[in-house]
Design brief:
Length: 272
């Protein structure tokens, strides 16, 4: 355990800073199932042209937060060259063209100013301003966000969505996956046998049952929770354990959106 925690900031994170292969469309949420098409309409596939040859591959998830901006994880930003990225909204099957997709280039990358590259220190959040706005084609929606500093109670069931790996050997189904995942409150997640002092109050822990978790490829994607009469994105997938992502007492850790609303609104206003 001591070695595990010592390595956490650079290798132990399931939603790691270097996805397996930028040109491979990664699989699914561990323990999940195929999402119903046209349900999680704020979900985004963030894609990278890592060789600058026009070949884009899924690396992370994200959420539509207004018509020009996508919210994702700071550790998903592998290059500050906006020309290397595109986002796909209205996506469902990464291997097929469904006719619902919009492929939009990125104009500006806005990383939280306190992001250091160390996931254990938090601030793992970024915005991308799009070159063209998302338009309402019936397959997209702007995410509702939580109230400032809103926290979820222990055991509250949310849903994780994404195209992340479905197991530690790298199985890669193609359709958007969804799984129910229960919140683990900070007082539990910060205990030594859980994530200890690297579980910050600006994070949300969920899972840790050894069955359901996020994994590589889910990074940056949403933690979807039905609160105050609407589905809201309460978290951004940040990190988890190395190897098998679905480990007991090692829940998936999300950046808590409610802790960063002031920065987000300011950044979006400055970059409209």
């Amino acid at each position: 355990m001591i070695c595990l925690l010592a390595l956490l900031s650079w290798t132990v994170l399931a939603c790691a800073e270097e996805p397996f292969n930028h040109n491979v469309h990664n699989g699914r949420v561990i323990g999940g199932s195929d999402a119903k098409p046209n349900t999680w309409r704020w979900q985004v596939s963030l894609q990278l042209d890592s060789y600058s040859d026009g070949s884009f591959g899924h690396i992370c998830g994200g959420s539509i937060v207004d018509s020009f901006h996508i919210m994702t994880a700071a550790h998903c930003i592998l290059s500050m060259d906006a020309n290397q990225y595109r986002v796909v909204v209205g996506e469902y099957n990464l291997f097929e063209y469904d006719g619902s997709e919009q492929f939009i280039r990125v104009e500006t990358i806005i990383v939280h100013p306190d992001w250091t590259g160390d996931l254990a220190k938090g601030n793992d959040i970024a915005l991308m301003k799009l070159a063209n706005p998302v338009y309402n084609n019936g397959y997209v929606d702007i995410a509702n966000l939580p109230y400032p500093d809103q926290m979820l109670p222990h055991g509250f069931t949310c849903y994780i969505t994404g195209w992340g790996l479905m197991d530690y050997i790298g199985s890669i189904p193609d359709k958007l996956q969804v799984a129910p995942i229960d919140v683990v409150e900070h007082s539990v997640c910060s205990q030594p046998e859980w994530w200890g002092d690297i579980a910050l109050k600006t994070m949300v822990c969920a899972g840790g049952d050894g069955v359901i978790s996020g994994c590589q490829g889910d990074s940056g994607g949403p933690l979807n929770c039905f609160t105050d009469g609407a589905w809201r994105v309460h978290g951004v997938v940040s990190y988890g354990p190395a190897g098998m992502c679905n480990q007991v007492s090692k829940p998936t850790v999300f950046t808590r959106v409610s802790s960063f609303l002031d920065w987000m609104y300011s950044a979006m206003g400055l970059n409209l």
